[in-house]
């Protein structure tokens, strides 16, 4: 149990709520943003004294039922709910091991989207599969050691990549990716490969370790990336991240605006194929 971080999160989550979003009357002038402590206590069915001790890091180990009540009262997202359970020293009751199995449906999607680069990742950012056009675009992401097939490991250890970004873009990606990995840690607290990855990343990358200690929790969504291909040149593509419901697998689909120079570049890449798709090691 991490009492100090639990206390901080409870205060932050309480401060971001307003009475209307929690189904409460506004109650006149408020000296501070968010809900009053007694309002959250009432919504969660707890005593104000106990909630005060939780928010000050002085309370004992809260039960799973108390954690669930607080999550409901604070209107937490699934990722935040999982994080709250972990901070309180409980496994998320909805957690399952990280899915690394490529389902038949996702395989069929890979087969049918032959003219679109598609990458499949698990919740730890480990490469599960890629179609031939993705391999032509980024290089062979399924070769090399297991660590070399993990996108976060590659990024934070400086392994070769065809993605080019400004310092600001890199910083935004890193913050979002680490927050996403922390959300995965909350969802899958007993997944040994995930725990080992986090420990190893903290040991090898000071930047990752600093971001990890910020305790941000979020789910990574879509973005735009510029890829410098050795034959086609620069391609700026939309990267839409779709989660496979019930499995946790993510499909990352790269696409260009129709008729744009980037679209023409992808068409040329389809012609070239995978002859320049050697591993990025």
From TrEMBL:
SMART domains (alphabetical): HTH_XRE (SM00530)
* Domain of life of the organism encoding this protein: Bacteria
Which Pfam families has this protein been placed in? HTH_31 (PF13560), MLTR_LBD (PF17765)
**Residue ranges of coiled coil:** none
Annotated HTH cro/C1-type domain ranges read 30-81
As given in the record, the signal peptide range reads none
Gene3D superfamilies associated with the record: 3.30.450.180, lambda repressor-like DNA-binding domains
The entry's protein name is Transcriptional regulator
């Amino acid at each position: 149990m991490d009492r100090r971080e639990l206390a901080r999160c409870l205060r932050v989550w309480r401060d971001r709520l307003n009475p209307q979003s929690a189904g409460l009357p506004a109650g006149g002038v408020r000296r501070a943003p968010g809900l009053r402590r007694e309002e959250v206590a009432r919504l969660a069915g707890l005593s104000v004294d106990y909630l005060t001790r939780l928010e000050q890091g002085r309370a004992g180990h809260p039960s799973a039922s108390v954690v669930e009540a607080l999550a409901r009262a604070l209107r937490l997202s699934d990722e935040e709910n999982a994080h709250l359970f972990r901070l309180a020293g409980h496994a998320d009751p909805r957690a399952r091991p990280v899915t690394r199995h490529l389902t038949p449906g996702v395989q069929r999607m890979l087969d049918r989207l032959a003219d679109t680069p598609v990458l499949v990742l698990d919740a730890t950012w480990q490469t599960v599969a890629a179609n031939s056009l993705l391999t032509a675009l980024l290089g062979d992401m399924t070769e090399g050691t297991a660590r070399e097939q993990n996108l976060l490991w590659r990024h934070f250890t400086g392994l070769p990549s065809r993605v080019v970004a400004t310092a600001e873009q890199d910083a935004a990606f890193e913050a979002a990716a680490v927050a996403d990995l922390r959300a995965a840690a909350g969802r899958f607290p007993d997944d040994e490969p995930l725990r080992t990855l986090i420990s190893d990343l903290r040991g090898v990358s000071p930047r990752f370790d600093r971001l990890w200690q910020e305790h941000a929790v979020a789910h990574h969504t879509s973005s735009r990336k510029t890829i410098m291909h050795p034959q086609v040149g620069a391609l700026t593509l939309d990267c839409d991240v779709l989660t496979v419901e019930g499995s946790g697998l993510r499909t990352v689909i790269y696409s260009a605006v129709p008729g744009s120079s980037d679209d023409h570049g992808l068409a040329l890449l389809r012609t070239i194929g995978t002859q320049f798709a050697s591993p990025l090691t």
